[in-house]
Amino acid sequence: MLYELERYEVLTSKGYLDRLNAPTPWSTKMMPHHLGMVRSQCRVAASFGGGVATSLATIRLSPEAGREAELQAHLSETLGTLAHMPGLTGAHLLLTDTPRTSSPTTEQQIRGKDGAADWIMLLSGYDAEAIEQVAADRLSPAALGTLGAQDNPTIGRYRLAFTMTPQDMATI
Questions:
Q1: Which of 40, 48, 65, 89 is the most exposed place for a label (fewest CB within 10 A)?
Q2: How open is the CA angle 53-56-61, to the nearest 5 degrees?
Q3: pTM of the prediction?
Q4: Within the chain, which residues score under 70 in pLDDT?
Q5: Which of 150, 156, 149, 130 is nearest to 74 (CA)?
Q6: Are 150 and 45 in contact (CB under 8 A)?
Q7: CA–CA separation, 24 vs 41, rounded Å?
Q8: 106 close to 21: Cβ distance less than 8 angstroms
Q9: What pLDDT score does 102 carry?
Q10: Does the residue 124 lie in any domain?
Q11: Distance (Å) of CA 136 to CA 48, 153, 155, 169
């Protein structure tokens, strides 16, 4: 799941933390089944293109020590080009910036510790094969390594099944 916030500060707001510390009965029942989750609260470092596409690839990676600025510059340039390729609609770079809270929330206590990615690239588009080709070529582990990434990027592939807007919710 992806959530986009108007402001990063929402993650430490009283209202948001109150909700996480008072999960619904359904959430309480389901949380123990959500094992091995990766939850990364991020800031957008680069964003190109837009819209809601049917296909999405995530590439989770970590920069090599001392090469962060170099890698970020290379990725920003590359992603800017990729967003305009046939089959792709967007390319984004997110940098994890986990907010500091005083203690784990009730939801965190129920499900256990979450993993987090250091950096995440998002590639979206209407052609899953075009996205796959980019991930296998220009953003392959070997290509990322030459740009300053560590050896272990993780690629996730997703297909959009359903979406609702606030206007849709108002009709329910």
A1: 65
A2: 145
A3: 0.85
A4: 1, 102
A5: 149
A6: no
A7: 22
A8: yes
A9: 64
A10: yes
A11: 20, 12, 10, 38
| First-to-final CA distance of the chain | 22
The total of structural domains in the chain comes to 1
- Can you tell me the distance from the alpha carbon of 92 to that of 47, in angstroms, rounded to the nearest whole number? 4
The single-letter code of the amino acid at 169 is: M
Instruction: Please report, for the domain that includes residue 53, its CATH number.
Output: 3.30.70.100
Q: Does residue 167 sit within a domain?
A: no
Contact predicate 93/133, CB 8 Å? no
pLDDT at 51: 86
Residue 98: C-alpha distances to residues 13, 28, 41, 49, 80 (Å): 14, 23, 5, 25, 26
Residue 52: which domain range?
8-30+39-161
Q: What's CA 81's distance to the chain center, in Å?
A: 20
Cβ atoms within 10 Å, residue 49: 20
Fill in the amino acid letter for 149.
A
168 located within any domain? no
- What sign for the dihedral angle of Cα 107, 110, 115, 121? negative
Instruction: Provide the pLDDT for residue 140.
Output: 96
Residue 112 amino acid letter: G
Please check whether residue 2 lies inside any domain of the structure: no
